[in-house]
From TrEMBL:
Top-level taxonomic group: Bacteria
Family statement drawn from the similarity comment of this UniProt entry: Belongs to the 4-toluene sulfonate uptake permease (TSUP) (TC 2.A.102) family.
Keyword check for Nucleus: no
GO CC annotations on file: plasma membrane
Key words of the record: Cell membrane, Membrane, Transmembrane, Transmembrane helix, Transport
Name assigned to this protein: Probable membrane transporter protein
Organism placement in taxonomy: Bacteria, Pseudomonadati, Pseudomonadota, Alphaproteobacteria, Rhodobacterales
């Protein structure tokens, strides 16, 4: 059997090669700096995949990417916030699956952008450290419509003031749970993941290689440089979100 015959009609071999290479690069960025790869991958897939498949397929790819990163760094995961985050995420996925109307994309982009920018530049109050449940609920609800809310979760994890290894490991574990719940919700909503399993498997494989390379880079930088790079990436992503949302409104 021709392996290419197993690919979705909307994903020719050359496009598959491009998204597989993109998965390596974006996974490297997230493993090395804790954030940025998921949103970059969403932007790339948005230009290559049919709209109906974009959010579900992106969720499955990001589940695999984050699961690999969480497994590699499992010894550094801070387990305290995980249970409330998971509970909030489950509620957010359930509610997101029941909402019949989409949230205004432009308003969502601007709101998340402002929050991420504030979190990157300001010193959040200590009360936010107890907000794993609300962070899981809001980010998972939004990801059902918006796709990439990694910066939102990273902004929450930043308030925990963790070291670079703990930050990346904890963020990856939270995102693994969030994307898994999103994939399950889209499955219940009737999205057919079957035709996309082979492309996702290839993207997961190249993404894991990117994670391995990114982990090596992460080990070589110190916490001070990591925090500066994280804040810079968060600011750039926030600016992109605000600009994109404002452009849609105008």
């Amino acid at each position: 059997m021709d392996a290419f015959a197993l690919l979705p009609a909307d994903l020719p071999p050359l496009t598959l090669a491009l998204v597989s290479a993109a998965s390596f690069c974006t996974s490297f960025v997230t493993a090395a700096f804790g954030i940025g790869g998921g949103m970059a991958m969403l932007a790339i897939l948005a230009s290559l995949l049919p709209p109906a498949a974009l959010i579900p397929v992106h969720g499955l790819v990001q589940f695999a990417s984050n699961a690999g990163r969480a497994a590699l760094l499992r010894g550094h995961v801070q387990r305290g916030p995980l249970l409330p985050f998971l509970a909030g995420s489950a509620l957010g996925a359930a509610l997101g699956g029941l909402v019949a109307v989409e949230l205004p994309p432009a308003a969502v982009e601007i709101a998340i952008g402002i929050f991420v920018l504030w979190s990157a530049l300001a010193s959040p109050p200590r009360v936010m450290r107890a907000g794993a449940g609300p962070a899981g609920f809001v980010s998972t609800l939004l990801t059902m419509f918006f796709g990439a809310t990694g910066p939102f979760v990273a902004a929450y994890v930043k308030t925990l003031a963790l070291g670079r290894m703990e930050h990346v490991a904890t963020h990856a574990t939270m995102m693994t749970a969030q994307h898994l719940l999103k994939v399950i919700a889209f499955g219940f909503l009737g999205f057919a993941f079957g035709p996309w399993l082979l492309p996702v498997a290839l993207m997961a494989a190249t993404g894991f290689l990117g994670t391995l390379a990114g982990k090596r880079a992460l080990l070589r930088i110190d916490d001070r440089l990591f925090k500066r790079a994280l804040a810079a990436i968060l600011c750039l992503l926030a600016a992109r979100l605000i600009w994109s949302g404002a452009a849609e409104l105008l």
